[in-house]
Structures
1.
Amino acid sequence: MKTILLNPGPVTLSERVRQALLGDDLCHREVEFASLQSGIRNKLLDIYQLADTEWAATLMTGSGTAAVEAMVTSLVPATGKLLILENGVYGERMTRIAGRYGIRTVSLRNNWEAPIDYVAVGEALAADPEITHVAIVHHETTTGRLNDLAPLAMLCAQHKVFMLLDAVSSFGAEVIDFANWPIAAAAATANKCLHGVPGTCFVIVNRDALANAHPRSVYLDLVAYIAAQDKAGTPFTQSVQTFYALNEALNELIEQGGVETRRQTYRSRMGRIRSLLTEIGVRPFLDDDEVSCVLHAYELPSTTNYIKLHDDLKAQGFVIYAGQGPYAEKIFRISMMGEIADSDVDRLGRALQAALRA
């Protein structure tokens, strides 16, 4: 029985992506690797129709957190100051990253169940003209919340500051308005909405943001990566096989209709499960207009607990995800990324009904 991963990455792979891992062995200093890397960079920009004269796709070996850390530690200027907006685990992680590197930081903490308070953001920006960048998680998988970026973009434009976007769980499926929002960079990974494998991450960087960059890490230096990759090189050894997989996953995304089609696919799958769970009395954690297309959280019924629900579903070939922090025993999470057929969604529905009505 095939196991379907319903956690927010890694995802269940298509057979094409799995087979791509068997590509020829390559040295990262050879022309064949340079061609592979350049092709991936171009395809990443094409997802949101970005010109390589204005934007650079920067590939690195590491997890999504590595991409976020590279973005934060490379692009905040030496004299800059970072405002971090938190309403979940991953916003709080950015604050820890900035603190570890001694970056001047202001954090606005919101309840994990609440949207970002943009009145407070506007007040913070007005009160502190030293702030140069605002960092936010687009899709906070802690709860499944899709943070609304349009109000933030307006505030950033008004105060002439730039956005650093953790798009790890949204890039390739959700709307990101690179053309009209003052985005300095967006960090993401191969093994979520793009359906690649863990091991490759990337940062989409506005080339103008490089003028005031101040890299604080050797391995996570975005300036060095962009300089090398623009010349068909790489500063460090890359994970070649995961590059093969990402390249094939991007080919699939293109063939399937791109980001808009993927978003609608996720919405359709998620809508079916959300409707079924609602019908049997399982309450969604957030309202319909607050959630991403990628992942939804649900309140655990009093008749079960996470471990039992997880194990019952795993026995039927499905792996769900627990809540985090104070929600560890209160919610469960289901994501719909990856290679999931309509028949898998039907089977999941039956498995959920059996487990939750038991």
2.
Amino acid sequence: MNKLKDNKIYKITKTVLNILVAAFLVLFLLVVCLQRFSGNKISILNYRMFTVASGSMVPKYEVGDVLISKEIDTNKIKVGETISYLGNKGDFKNKVITHEVIAIEEIDGKKAFHTKGLANIIEDPIVYEDQIYGVVIHRCIILSAIYKLIATEYGMLIIVIPILYIIGSELLSFLLDKEEKKRSTQKN
């Protein structure tokens, strides 16, 4: 009886962990897709997730790092903070840029931010408050590792196959348990 109880607890624990891992990975992929297809216009509870695309912020952030930024009142942004914003000029046009604030001033009654990548020599074009998505508050090490893995040639398969396996095994286990219960009630 005790062995049966231990086996049941093991199955329940395994199922819960598998569901949590699969849900986390699916949620991550959904958030990434949502932001990509919306042009980063949609935030989730005032948070956005961005991926570092260039080496302009090395050594603070590496290419492929996943950053979380939070929308805040632009009056609270300070020199030295890292912000994510939508570029609107030159090579920056329509790209999400994540750089450090090096100066703040007012131009024609509008708050203007001077930004620059840590590894860059030249300052970015002026950034106005309506371009800012938020202040970077966290670099997600686990999500960065997953993103870097997905970005490899076979990386997507390394993520998709385990997710499909977990979902398939849980579905099969559920169906087999349901069939076993059905048979046991028919015998009685």
3.
Amino acid sequence: MALHIGTCGFSYRDWIGPFYPNGIKSLEMLPYYAERFSAVEINSTYYAIPAPKLFESMDKRTPQQFRFTVKAPGSITHVPAAETPAAAEAQAFRECLQPLIGSGKLAAVLAQFPNSFRPGDEAWERLGQLRSFWPDLPLIAEFRHRDWQADATLRGLRELGIGWCNVDEPRFRSLMRPGAEVTSDIGYIRFHGRNYDRWWKQQREAHERYDYAYPPQELTEWIPRIAEVSEQTKESFVFFNNHRNGKAAVNARQLSEMLDAGDADR
């Protein structure tokens, strides 16, 4: 089994200082990052499907053992459940990933659904559509509403061959509670921060929800869950999405050090 810890995204100008050295160029960020973390989650694909040359460049700038997970486009995951996403969009996304598939660096595609996406026949049809769009890709589903957190969901995802994303976020009643669920041979955990005051901001201010630094005790809570997920999977990923001002990179390094220290004690 392999455990990778990293961040959701890497190309942030406000990380210069807290994580990247002053004067670093944009093309130098990924190699610098890859010297310190073994995986990254690419989120920019949620907003637009890039040309394959983007991932060709990322492949060349990272070591062979480096791993990428890539977020599915919002034009596919955030279409109302009663509608069918465009097959052409799904195919274009599949094609843009080919450089990472060819190099063996693509670990998974993350399909993150909105809070409005709730369990039901139409929602399950959407999940089936995604699997039919990308039958050969490792898929992970991240839900934002707690109604999905049920045994029936876990069984359904296993049948579709879709992995489960565990999350840490504010403990609002409608949001997902922390767990250590696994529905495929890939384990997945995302840390969004616990910014209660800013979580429900309007879209133009939504970036503020991720302005949060985890204290050590909140990271420690997750160590048994991470171990449980890792023990059930061939490969597991822990990504920090609290990206404002480099907090994700700082917390990812802290968690890595905690886990390394725990291994040394055993």
